[in-house]
Amino acid sequence: MISCCSYEQVGLKMFLGVTATVGNWNAEGTTCSLILEDNPLVDFVELPDTCQGLYYCNILSGVIRGALEMVSMKTEVTWIRDMLRGDDAFELQLKLLKQVPEEYPYKDDE
User: Fold this and answer.
1) Which Pfam families match (predicted)?
2) The architecture CATH gives domain 5-99
3) Would you list the domain boundaries of the chain?
4) Global pTM?
5) What is the secondary structure of 43-82 as a DSSP string?
């Protein structure tokens, strides 16, 4: 299960400057939605009609996936809704693929 209730609020605000809420958990507790309340990456951005298929803020999904890998969680992060594409919110879906056991390159008892 991904446990990120209060930590995601502090971490996202501290490192990315955004606030978010977590919701839409599945029954197994392995998939949730991260709804961004604000997104500073899009303050002065308008996508032309020729670029409507572009996920302009896709770097955020990579940042979140990379941060979760650093704490031994293999995840898949995809965009569900994007205001630049005409949706009413910015929403990412986080899916836990597997919990990777931590490996230490040294022995503790030496």
Assistant:
1) TRAPP (PF04051)
2) 2-Layer Sandwich (3.30)
3) 5-99
4) 0.74
5) TT----GGGTT--TTHHHHHHHHHHHHHTTEEEEEEEEE-
